[in-house]
Fold each of these.
Amino acid sequence: MSNFRVGLKKVVDDSYDIEIGYELEEKLVNDIRDGLVGSLHKFAIVTDDIVKELHAEKICKLLQKAGYTAQLFVFPNGEKSKVRKVKENIEDAMLEAGFRRDCCVIAVGGGVVTDLAGFTAGTYGRGVPFINYATTHLAAADASIGGKTAVDTPLATNLIGIFNQPKKVYIDIAAWKTLPKRQLISGMAETIKHACLADVAFFEYLEEHIKDVFAFKQEVLEHIAEENCKIKYHVVMQDEKEANLREILNLGHTVGRAIETVSEYQLLHGEAVGIGLAAEVRLGNSYGYISETDRDRVIALLQKAGLPTEIPDYINREELVKKLYTDKKVRDGKLRFVFQKGIGAVMEFENQNYARLVPEEDARKVIMSM
Ligand SMILES: NC(=O)c1ccc[n+]([C@@H]2O[C@H](COP(=O)([O-])OP(=O)(O)OC[C@H]3O[C@@H](n4cnc5c(N)ncnc54)[C@H](O)[C@@H]3O)[C@@H](O)[C@H]2O)c1
């Protein structure tokens, strides 16, 4: 018999720019004209039914005016749309409309849109390029950067997906003006998470300026957007596929993702992460990783931002403990948590591990106390 070796060494440059600014729709179209995605001239603009009127239609019209073929693919807003079925609907609609491999997807919206559209682009025709136009604070702080794309399933959030880097990310700070206050607050959770895990000066800045976020003080919003990007892309550049370091971005997400699912998405992603961070500092304090003072500072900052730090009464605590096991960090059926080291750093455990095993009784104790 024969034995063939298929030599396929990969050298890939997936670098991309993140542009932060105000009303960047025209800039996006100019960049496309200047070759952002080569000579592609067909654009599938994926968005939800709220962002459609706020930004996506404008981008669509600008592209058409510039001579491109552009079409909107719209789904109902909210986390419940981040599922396989909606991905399938978008794909079928794109096929029906004649979109083939020579197209580019533009995700216009929050994290639900960028996660769903990025995943769709990654599998459509075995992969077409995509661009993120982030319109929520949460997508700006986290979801639009880093190339993680996914859908939720009834069992857990974000477990079915791919790493797929966008060609460029646009962060439109002006878009935050129309966000409902609850959504703006939700976005603060990933911002506070970044400060907790990487930058004590940024944490102090947030302690001082959090009210200015809600007063839309321009320089504060810009500073926050920039710091979030820097913290996230520095981690992603070192460990794109989450072999080790990238796990630190899961701070607060073990309890966070589980409670988001158990609440059947009554809790927004950021609200769930707020509760998750509060659980993490409580557990971390019991292990000696963070002082009582710093634990209380983290909880106080979350509260100052308007985020929940206790588990709502309607959540079944036992169900929540069980749900922790659907977390992607679980190894050999054992729970693993990321912990901050004081404020502005993370705990590193043996063999470059950034998550440690947590006995179920310890996790249960914290959950029951909240
Ligand atoms: N891929 C990642 O690395 C990553 C990281 C963090 C979070 N996420 C995901 O991000 C999602 C949460 O993101 P999100 O909070 O942006 O969700 P979202 O996309 O559902 O947006 C929240 C709501 O705001 C509305 N909206 C969006 N832009 C608006 C605007 N400018 N004005 C008024 N309303 C607007 C949307 O229609 C929606 O109703 C979750 O699915 C989470 O899992 C992904």
Amino acid sequence: MLSDKTDTWVPVALSQDLPTGQAMPARTLAGPIALWRSQSGRLAASADRCPHRGMRLSHGFVRGEALSCIYHGWTYSQAGRCLRIPAHPSLTPPETIRVATRSVEEAGGIVWVADGEPDGKPPLFEGYVPLRSLTVRAGGSALSAATGTKAAVEGFVWRAPGAPAIRLLPVPQETGETLIHVLVPADCGVSERVAASRAAESLRRMAERIEAKEAVP
Ligand code: FES
């Protein structure tokens, strides 16, 4: 599922964090991406750099089925083609003006992106639903030490005292941080979800303390 290859699916966000008509930044191994959901609910992922003057497209705004750059309003389709240049309203933009796009799929409440053409569909984690994502200022070894289990990028189950067993999907970031998606059993009640969320925050603190100690020469 996850590896250092670019043709594998990477869980970049939770569906619940990307409402209709909005854009958000995310990352893959190939760099930053703009993730956006059109008014009809279709997902798109593109390089987070406008071909005009490099503004981040994740700062742009969604209009209908297109994404407009916040700087000069160049507008792009989900396939990456430039549809409109406001300073030249009568011009049909040449096909050569386009933004690179990525494969994107939604499965089990998670948004998956691949830089290449992956075989098959993203995985489904039967019996689990997404709870939240959090960023930890620590890498895989500190996370493994904090959980007492190998922090496999395919995901792993961890249980803190007083909380339900949760499934964690760690996604290493270029910054050395780790984005973690937290999944809980689908039959969890409200109090168990709160306990799971607190357990994830406590894990973040533990991993960051370990990372800080490891960084001391
Ligand atoms: S930088 Fe995006 S339209 Fe100018």
